[in-house]
Amino acid sequence: MRLRVRARLLLVLGTTVLGGSTHATAQEVVQFNGSAGQVSRPPSPDGESGGAPISIHARFRYDGPIDLCAATVTLSEILGDADLGELVRGSDNQAVLPFQVANAQCSTTGNLVFGSPETDRPSFRIAIRRRVEDAFDVDIKVARSTISTQPKACGDGAASTDLATSFALDDGTHPPLTIATVESWRCALPTLRASRDDAEPTPTPGPSPAPAPSPGRAVSIDLSGKASRIDQIGEPVEAASIRITGTFCGTPTADLLATTITFDSVLDEEDGAGELLAGVPLNLAPVGTTVTGVAFRCRDSGPSCWMEVKQLDPCVLPGPATGVRYEYSLKIDRSQDGRRVPITYLAAPSCAPNDNTELTTSFTIDDVTSLRLRTKEVWLCTGSDGVVNQIRAD
């Protein structure tokens, strides 16, 4: 039996040799959130792909050199159980880890995406985004996997279990990094969930790096949305469109024109098909002011999009604390910027016409600090002859 002590540390191991010894430094994880659906479901028959979606977000600090655009990533553990080993499997319950991939899609802003072909079963997507100074965001998404065995602690009746996530980055020039953490996941079967946000991370030994930005508080007030032609999967759909509008209460932003916006999820069915929209994360930059707010457009890869954000009247945050009410409107279709890139859907939601499904939308507004909003809403699936071609949230 392997023994593992749960830790809230992300280990960044450098192979720097001083006096003949190898040294390692530990960096505090300031955020870790995750979900894994369809846990303890048997493998699909006849070797068909599984349906277990996995989404993990982590923020960590590292102040050493690394050329992310030249790196190879090796994903060694996703949901590593100390007693049972890795829980994430492929069809026929075969092992799919370690997963290794190079040649990331790398933007001019330093954001990069590693991934397997979308036709792979399961398929992997690892996005890494450099924030200010030594702070990095990592998003790991796995679609169509199989998690046929529940964690041992959950099976024994525990409310939570400790599971390991680890991957390595090697650019071939600088010392490679091995990034690993063991986190507490709630046994809410058929879903596992992890959530942690440390507002004041403990300083690490040695020279003190610049602190990572603490995310500002945000509370969703409402959201409405609509997505069309969602039955056309895997190919660009010229006439497809997505509209999402909402309001939330959050900490004020000094100057929206000095911020950027990143959508980590747009239509993410965490307990089903995973992220439905190809090209996520979406990276938006300000392009000017509107009558009462600031306009943003998508840049780099992904579909064409436009977004307006307004800061309006004061509101009350938990605590209590005073915030400001934000209104936002996101439009995604080929006409929304000069690139004219249409929508491509990765998957259809796992619902029938006139049924409901839950979809997660999350984005971060970044300047010196950051403001992160994550909302999970019920969407109605509509269509005919058993085929869903549109979804909407009211």
Short summary of the structure?
The protein has one helix and 28 strands.
Count of domains = 2
Discrete helix count: 1
Please describe the biggest sheet, giving its number of strands, its sense, and whether it closes into a barrel. 14 strands, antiparallel
Shape designation: globular
Order of helical and strand elements: EEEEEEEEEEEEEHEEEEEEEEEEEEEEE
Uncertain runs are 1-26, 199-214
Task: Please state roughly what percent of the residues sit in beta strands, choosing from under 5%, 5-15%, 15-25%, 25-35%, 35-45% or over 45%.
Answer: over 45%
Mean pLDDT figure: 81
Key phrases:
mainly beta, globular, 1 helix, 1% helix, 394 residues
Question: Any overview of this molecule?
Answer:
This protein is an all-beta fold and 394 residues long. The protein has two domains: 1-201, no CATH class; 213-394, no CATH class. Helices cover 1% and strands 52% of the residues. Strands 1, 4, 5, 6, 7, 8, 9, 10, 11, 12, 13, 14, 15 and 16 form a 14-stranded antiparallel β-sheet that branches. The chain has a ten-stranded antiparallel β-barrel with strand order 18-19-25-24-23-22-20-26-27-28. A two-stranded antiparallel ribbon has the order 2-3. The model is unreliable at 1-26 and 199-214 (pLDDT under 50).
